[in-house]
Write a structure and sequence with these properties.
InterPro entries: P-loop_NTPase (IPR027417). Keywords: Coiled coil. Helices cover 79% and strands 0% of the residues. The chain is an all-alpha fold. The protein folds into two domains: 49 residues, no CATH class; 53 residues.
């Protein structure tokens, strides 16, 4: 069983859309089609065959992927920064221990 939205999406991707006005050719439409520029015809064909719906969804998906990718990168950067902070703290502790050892060694001699 498919939802109404799923069926609508499939039909739109196949070029059947409520907003598609090219199922019935209106008077004067043929003349205007012949006078169109190449880019306008391409846009018209994209509207008719449903490619525009695909392109719009693709753009939306890319935006989402870009946002998620940036969020993931920020998370990774935060993890690296946290690791370096922890490592720096450990090295500071080791430095203090080394100073104490050197002082004790100096006193012993």
């Amino acid at each position: 069983m498919h939802s109404k939205t799923e069926v609508k999406n499939v039909l739109e991707s196949a070029g059947f859309s409520r907003s598609n006005q090219y199922y019935v050719v209106q008077q004067g439409k043929i003349a205007s089609l012949t006078l169109m520029k190449g880019s306008e015809r391409l846009d018209l064909l994209r509207d008719i065959d449903g490619t525009r719906v695909y392109e719009d969804r693709r753009k939306d998906s890319l935006k989402i992927v870009t946002k998620t990718g940036a969020a993931n990168k920020m998370k990774q950067i935060d993890q690296v920064v946290q690791y370096f902070k922890e490592r720096l703290r450990e090295l500071d502790e080791e430095k203090e221990e080394l100073k104490k050892y050197q002082q004790l060694d100096k006193q012993r001699r």
